[in-house]
Fold this sequence. Notes:
Helix content: 40-55%
Radius of gyration: 22 Å
Structural class: alpha+beta
Number of strands: 5
Strand content: 15-25%
CATH class: Alpha Beta
Strand order of the largest sheet: 1-2-3
Number of helices: 6
Shape: elongated
Amino acid sequence: MKVSDILRVKGNTLYTVHPDQTLAEAARTMAELDIGSLVVMEHGDLVGMLTFREVIGAVVANGGSLGQRHVRSVMDDAPLTCTPETEIDEVRRMMLQRHARYMPVLEQRTLMGVISFYDVAKTVVDAQDFENRMLKAYIRDWPAETGAQAR
């Protein structure tokens, strides 16, 4: 299974932010849209990733407020990325290794979407459930043994 399979089901709605936008504006957008990340884009290129992890870290570092900080000052400027052709098992391994919850999907330099650890886990569980149903159906339909085969 590949990342393109997740994007096909998930859709291609993208939420982005400019690195010079205030962190408070970005956090408000994330809260209003109930999303955990924003892709940071500048001049049509991915330049970083902003997640609630960075927002919370900024709040703690600033004594409980976001102040006038900008996205650029706290974003992950080297986020993990993958392509639509990346295998799900590879994405899962990379996300676990880096403790990443969100991963932008790029084709060349074009942003195709963002997948979350939840998306990956759901895809794996759905695939396992499908496989289990198929195996159970196969076992249920197993042909009965005849007298000669039973011996």
